[in-house]
Amino acid sequence: MKEIKVKNSIIKLVQGDITELNTDVIVNAANAQLILGGGVAGAIRRKGGAAIQMECDKIGGTFVGGAVITTGGNLKARHVIHAVGPRMGKGNEDIKLRSAVLNSFKLMDEHGLKTIAFPAISTGIFGYPIDRCAKIMILTAKEYLAGETQIREIVFCLFSEPDFEVFNEELNQISKTY
Ligand code: AR6
C-alpha cells in the first residue's frame, strides 16, 4: 500500500478486488448503456446483486465521460458510481477519461460522500493503455483535492501487480513534480 497527502485528503493505492473494499463508494468501469458486462462490472453484478442493474436500467444510460450513482446492493460500499470511460480508438480518449473521473468526484460532493475507490477505468475490455490511465486518473484526483471538496480519500484499486507498479511509479512522479 502506498499513499500521498493532498491538503486534508489522501490518494492511496491498493492491489486487489475492488468489490471487497469498504469505501463509501466503489466505481464501476461502465459502458454508456449502463449494462453491467464483464471485468469490474461483472464482479459488481455478481457480488452486489440484481438491484444495481435494475437501478441502472431505470436511469437508462449516460454519455461517454459521464457518471451516475446507484446503491451498492449487497456490497460493503454503500454506493456504486458508474463512470463511463473511453473505448480505445474512438477519439479524444484522454479527455473522456478525465471527464469520467471528474464527474465521479462531482457526484461525491453532491451526495456528501467522503471515500471513493476507482479501478483502472478503460484498461480492460476497452483497451486503453495503463500508463496513460495512471497519469490522467492520478493527476485529475490531485487537482480535484487541491480545490474545495469534502472528499477525504481517493483509492486506486489495481487488479494486477504490474498495473499496481505502473500506478505506483506515476504517483511517485506526480508527488515530486507538483
Ligand atoms: N477489481 C479491480 N479491478 C478489476 C477487477 C476487480 N474485481 N476486475 C477487473 N479489473 P474492465 P473497461 C481491472 O474490463 O476496460 C464491461 O463489460 C482490469 O484488469 O472492467 O473500462 C463493462 O460493462 C482492468 O485493469 O473495464 C463495459 O462494457 C480494469 O479493471 C466494459 O467492460 C478495467 O477493466 C468496460 O471496459
Structural features:
178 residues, Leucine Aminopeptidase, subunit E, domain 1, 7-stranded mixed β-sheet, 7 strands, binds ligand AR6
Show the helix and strand layout:
Layout: E1 2-6, E2 9-15, E3 25-30, H1 39-48, H2 50-59, E4 67-71, E5 79-84, H3 93-110, E6 115-118, H4 130-146, E7 153-158, H5 161-177
Parallel strand pairs: 2-7, 3-5, 3-6, 6-7
Antiparallel strand pairs: 1-2, 4-5
Helix pairs in contact: 1-2, 3-4, 4-5
This protein binds ligand AR6.
Spans of at least 5 consecutive residues with low confidence: none
% residues in beta strands: 15-25%
What value does the average pLDDT take?
97
Helix-strand sequence: EEEHHEEHEHEH
Structure description:
The chain has a single domain (3-176), classed as Leucine Aminopeptidase, subunit E, domain 1. Helices cover 40% and strands 22% of the residues. It has 5 helices and 7 strands, in the order βββααββαβαβα. It has helices at residues 39-48, 50-59, 93-110, 130-146, 161-177, and strands at residues 2-6, 9-15, 25-30, 67-71, 79-84, 115-118, 153-158. Strand 6, helix 4 (130-146) and strand 7 form a beta-alpha-beta unit. The relative contact order is 0.21. Ligand AR6 binds at residues 17-19, 29-31, 36-41, 43, 85, 119-126, 157, 159, 163.
